TrEMBL record:
Domain of life: Archaea
Region of interest (Disordered), residue spans: 301-320, 442-479
Composition skew (Polar residues), residue ranges: 470-479
InterPro entries membership: DUF58
Protein name: DUF58 domain-containing protein
Domain DUF58: 190-304
Length: 479
């Protein structure tokens, strides 16, 4: 119709035919009147439309559908069609492609749909897409409306998160074994294989003779130690698909420890590692308000082998001290060693400036000798990781390390990379009083070809109290 009006107007001018000009004015006038009516209707709709999201609850377990209702209401009927289209939240699966449709004389409507998150965290229900168009489809305007609604997703038993200790490690759910609590009481809790650093007076000789290798007795803890969670929220932890990043999976592990501590009134502290090297710290506490504060910090965070003895290598601090001493030393021996310490200086500097290492050192000032340190991080920056775990051990703490393998999150999953990750995990697990676990999406467990897990040196560092070999467990059991 617009084209016809334009042609009529052009013909009237070209052929000096006034009748054609009159024919052009009619459609143009009609078009202008429709546009004017639409502008008025759209103005009323956009300014007066109220869109509200109402979730069935504000806190929901991962893996459980959450019903969400979207209600739309106009102050009065408008001569336009209004479509309200809910958007699927980040990291969620929704069962809706439905639309709330308001056509005159309707002024209100609603729909309900289910949303499911598979990983714990804090998520937003985003504003809805609103489209206003005239009945003829000539004009339209689009905007977003409705306040974002925050939903907290807690860990649940039926999630995609798996935690395990390696192909050859003996593994049981941590809530059953609690090997890091052993040795604090007098009642025998378990008998397990000897590990370097275990007290020799706990050796169980009958089990040793029967099984052909050294075994020791573990004892029930008389009291619950404080738990210090070190949560790595640096930018690199955002690797992975939407809603399934390293950060999301590690957060689920940390929330599981929070859940456990709250259930038994156990003191729990938190250190959040950031890229700027200034960690956020909450000292251990067991009040309800404290647990709530820890929970808030976890949801906000990221907002989404060789000998391990001190004699085997220098710590970053001792390397720096030795290098400094050599600066004033003039002997031939010092001149001979100077290139070695110059090469070590960048290493020492890199480790001491690593945010995780620095956070562990600060964390050690509030962690008591009877504390349990839980480190949630990835396998990147492996040198600094090993030094950070070593530092945590120096504070007299038992250490749990939960690692997300980068190979499972960056889209470049290869056998060699899985083998390398397993060597690093096994190296950490070989340290006295250290337990190291892999945290990964359940659907990615296995090799790139779907075969059995890669062979590794992990069997050489069998970790204490880890149950049957090659066993997987849901993260909610890690409590």
């Amino acid at each position: 119709m617009v084209a016809l009006a334009v042609l009529s107007g052009a013909g009237a001018v070209a052929f000096e035919r006034p009748a054609l000009l009159v024919a052009a004015v009619g459609p143009l006038a009609w078009l202008v009147s429709r546009q004017y009516a639409f502008v008025r209707a759209a103005g009323i709709a956009v300014s007066g439309l109220d869109v509200e999201f109402t979730p069935e609850r504000r806190t929901t377990p991962a893996g459980k559908p959450l019903s969400v209702t979207v209600a739309a209401k106009l102050p009065r009927p408008v001569s336009a069609v209004v479509r309200i289209e809910p958007d699927v939240p980040v990291g969620a699966a929704a069962d809706t492609e439905s639309t709330v449709l308001l056509e005159s004389p309707e002024t209100d409507g609603s729909l309900s749909f289910d949303v499911t998150w598979r990983v714990a965290g804090r998520y937003e229900l985003p504003p809805a897409r609103v489209v206003v168009e005239d009945a003829a489809g000539l004009f339209s305007v689009e905007t977003t409306m409705g306040d974002s609604v925050v939903v907290d997703v807690d860990p649940a038993r039926a999630t995609d998160v798996l935690v395990r200790g390696g192909r050859s490690d003996r593994f049981v759910p941590l809530g059953v074994s609690k090997p890091w609590l052993a040795g604090q009481g007098t009642e025998v809790a378990d008998i397990r294989e000897y590990k370097p650093g275990d007290p020799t007076n706990h050796i169980e000789w009958k089990a040793t003779a029967r099984r052909g290798s050294l075994h020791i007795r573990e004892f029930e803890a008389e009291t619950n130690p404080s738990v210090m969670v070190v949560f790595d929220a640096r930018a690199r932890l955002s690797a992975g698909e939407t809603g399934g990043t390293k950060l999301a999976y590690l957060r689920e592990v940390a929330l599981s420890f929070l859940q456990r501590s709250r259930n038994v009134s156990e003191p729990l502290g938190l250190t959040v590692v950031s890229d700027d090297g200034r960690p956020t710290m909450l000292e251990p506490g067991s009040a309800a308000s404290h647990y709530k504060q820890v929970r808030e910090q976890l949801f906000e965070a990221g907002s989404e082998g060789g000998s391990q003895t001190n004699q085997s290598r220098r710590s970053p601090g001792s390397a720096r001290a030795a290098a400094l001493a050599l600066e004033t030393e003039q002997s031939a021996f010092a001149r001979h060693l100077e290139p070695f310490f110059q090469a070590r200086a960048p290493y020492a500097s890199a480790v001491s400036n690593d945010p995780l290492y620095r956070a562990i050192v600060r964390h050690g000032s509030v962690a008591g000798g009877d504390s349990l340190t839980v480190i949630c991080t990835d396998d990147a920056g492996r040198t600094a990781l090993v030094e950070a775990v070593t530092a945590a051990r120096r504070f007299g703490s038992r250490v749990l390390v939960f690692l997300t393998p980068t190979a499972r999150f960056d889209g470049r999953l290869t056998q060699d990379r899985l083998d390398e990750f397993e060597r690093v995990r096994a190296q950490l697990a070989g340290m006295p009083n250290v337990w190291a676990y892999e945290v990964a999406p359940g659907h990615s467990i296995g090799t790139p070809e779907g075969d059995t897990e890669p062979q590794s040196a992990v069997g050489q560092h069998s970790a204490a109290g880890r149950g049957d070999a090659n066993t997987e467990t849901n993260v909610a059991e890690v409590q």
